[in-house]
Amino acid sequence: MAVSIRAKTDDDHAAVVDLLTRRWTSPDILIEGEMIDASRLPGFLAMEDDEIVGLVTLIQRDNEWEILTLDSLSRWSGVGTLLLNAVTGEAVESGIRRLLVRTSNDNLDAFRFYQRRGFRMEKLVPGAIEEERRLKPEIPMIGEYGIPIRDEVVFARKV
Q1: Which of 54, 89, 122, 128 would be 156's cystine partner, CB 3.0–4.6 Å?
Q2: The pTM is what?
Q3: In this predicted model, what pLDDT tens digit does every residue of 105-143 receive, in sequence order?
Q4: Separation between Cα atoms, residue 134 and residue 116, nearest integer Å
Q5: Is the distance from CB of 71 to CB of 83 less than 8 angstroms?
Q6: Residues 6+ apart with CB under 8 A from 155
Q7: Strand partners, 72
């Protein structure tokens, strides 16, 4: 069966909390010193055979949307692209012309994913993750590919 994308609803809350806890240690994501419950944000689910295979959550500001989380449970399957396309389509319909996303310095797969889809590096925030770890100590010290997690990189693109 093919993957379908739909807006997440309040009925999805328990499943979204479970997914975010498995992927991010908790639904609470720290950005610039502010704890944000990603499970309460708008977003989209990727579904296959009534199973969640992906999730994107969004901070919707007046002039831009920020992707807070984007998870594909089966890497390299196209689910992330489908979710990003749903976000982009909804942004255009809502009159939003800019998307941004933050990631940690170790997430080389995210660097590749976003740059291949038109995002550009906009800002480096040295030490941001080290600061966040003080408020959220469960953030690991070492990330993907054995790279120490220290900094935040912001990517953005026009839609």
Answers
A1: 122
A2: 0.94
A3: 999 999 999 999 999 999 999 999 999 999 889 899 999
A4: 33
A5: no
A6: 100, 101, 102, 103, 111, 114, 115, 119, 120, 121, 122
A7: 54
